[in-house]
Amino acid sequence: MSNLEQSSQHQADRYRPFASSIAVLPLKFRPAAASGIRMRVHVATTGPEPGNWLIDVDENVCRVFPGSIASPDARLYTDSEIGHSILTGGLSVGEALASRLLDYDGDTDALRRFGACFRLGDAP
């Protein structure tokens, strides 16, 4: 990638922080914590970056796709700025749920297991 292309990508990332942070979620995936987990989670955001994403965890593999599917295993709803803060470790999932900044449709225990599959922020 040329310097001009890198600069353009950096500018795009500055204006789409949620999209950038969810795109790198597979790099924060911990396969050892995902044994036996097969989940497809739809993430719907409002705010500066409205949209839909699908996080697909199949034991030792995590993928993120734009859009969603008709019948995911769970759905998460939040503002894109809150979502970015969660993905980068500025706000925990528990705090966001307790503060009603994140809504979740699905099995709460499954959400905990799903969330444990990722290293968010500076968490080891």
Please characterize this protein's 3D structure:
The chain has 124 residues and is α+β, with helices and mostly antiparallel strands. The protein has one domain: 2-Layer Sandwich (Nonspecific Lipid-transfer Protein, Chain A). 34% of the residues lie in helices and 27% in strands. The chain is built from five helices and five strands; from the N terminus they run ααββββααβα. Strands 3-2-1-4-5 form a five-stranded mixed beta sheet. A hairpin with a 4-residue loop joins β1 and β2. The longest helix is centred in the N-terminal third of the chain and has 13 residues, at 3-15. It is globular, with a radius of gyration of 14 Å. Mean pLDDT is 87; it is low at 1-12.
Helix percent band: 25-40%
Strand content: 25-35%
Distance between the termini: 31 Å
Q: What's the number of extended β-strand segments?
A: 5
The H-and-E topology, N to C, reads as HHEEEEHHEH
Overall morphology: globular
* Integer average pLDDT: 87
Main sheet makeup: 5 strands, mixed
Fourth-level CATH superfamily: SCP2 sterol-binding domain
Strand ordering within the main sheet: 3-2-1-4-5
- What is the radius of gyration? 14 Å
What name does the CATH topology carry?
Answer: Nonspecific Lipid-transfer Protein, Chain A
CATH architecture name? 2-Layer Sandwich
| Low-pLDDT residue spans | 1-12
How many structural domains can be distinguished in the coordinates?
Answer: 1
Structural class: alpha+beta
Please, how many helices?
Answer: 5
